[in-house]
Amino acid sequence: MFEEEKSSNTSIVVSIVVLVVLAAAGAVWFLLKNNHPDVEAAVTQVELMPLHSQYEHVYGNAGADQTEDNTYVLAHVIVNNRNSAAPAFLKDFSATLIPKEGEGQAATALEKDDLATVLKAFSQMQPLTEKVGGKPLLRETEIPRSSSAQGYVVFLFHGTPAVWKERTSATLRVDLYHNGVVTTEFPK
What we know:
The chain is of the alpha+beta class. The chain contains four helices and eight strands.
């Protein structure tokens, strides 16, 4: 009878050890498989196009001419879908600029129709688009599973190119339909 209890206790201990080993192996597999984001983004290149506008004062109103400086930021973006089970769908692109001095600025990437209008209005932007990928990365783009998409996105920020170059930081945010949000820093 004592041997039966010993045999029973041994089989219980062996069963528990096997379950613990299987649980540990499952936990390690889960962490390795899920410890990275399904979608990653990177900005690999940036080109700047300054835009200086001067507005003449209206006749009869006192005051000097007004000026405004803006900078178009053209960024080459790569979005990698590491998910081997499902495609990723691009929803929106936005950027935040934290200048060295002053308040932060947020901008949304130009949409397809706006981009066509801007490229038509500012012919000097066309060569810059070639430098940053040649084709736009558009909203609603589907990235097949285990694949990537790349192209340029365009943002408009207030200030001169010097404000951009001397910034504290600039962050790109890529919103996805089913995979949340991905952020990355613009290179300096």
